[in-house]
Amino acid sequence: MKATSFDTADAEVTTDAELLAALAVDPPGALGALYDRYGGLVYGLAMKILGAPAEAEDLTQEIFLTFCTKSDYDASRGTLSGFLVMLTRSRAIDKIRARTRKTRSLERWGDALIPEASGQSLLEAVSIGESSVRVRAALAELPESQRRVLEMAYYRDLSQAEIAAELETPLGTVKSWMRRGLLTMRASLAPLVG
Q1: What is the pLDDT of residues 84-123, one digit of tens each?
Q2: What angle do CA 184, 188, 194 make, to 5 degrees?
Q3: CB of 92 within 8 A of CB of 49?
Q4: SS3 content of the chain, % helix, strand, coil (to 5)
């Protein structure tokens, strides 16, 4: 059977199942029809959670592109609209968490860069700067895997589960790398501590 191009103007797609089948035949056309049908729902929910029109628009686009490129939607587990709502909610919450992590990280960097604002004397700030250089040097001496997971945890404020997901590595392996890295760092920095 020859696949024909899907055109929303020519074909009246009435069910979600027909729309999903059309994604395999004509992804751009079916994506347009999918967006026409559910774009308002996704955008409205994203806007309600994020509270920023630009972020809601970006998330809406991300949801539809993700759905078309690597969807794990299973019709037997629920409706397409329900799946899109769940996906939107999940991604919006991830964005809020990332926003919170970024804010905390910027606050920490701000305190480190402006000693007066954090109540530190100039001598304390210099001492912290020297310690920071030693910590970075000890970190650089670690094996790549241990260094990477520690940097992700402490510089990007990621949890061990998030690191495992991003590196596509088992959680136990990530925990092991972190523990070995921290033990090596502790031994390297022992003179600094006391």
Answers
A1: 998 899 899 888 888 777 776 666 665 555 555 455 555 5
A2: 125
A3: yes
A4: 80, 0, 20
For 148-178, b/e burial (b = at least 16 CB within 10 A) is bbbebbeeebbebebbbeeeeeeeeebeebb
For 13-169, where are the E strands, in sequence order?
Answer: none
The pTM of the full predicted model, rounded to 2 decimals, is 0.47
Contact 84, 94 (CB under 8 A): no
| Cα atoms found within 13 Å of the Cα of residue 72, Cβ hemisphere only | 2
Burial of residue 67 (CB within 10 Å: 0-12, 13-18, 19+) is buried
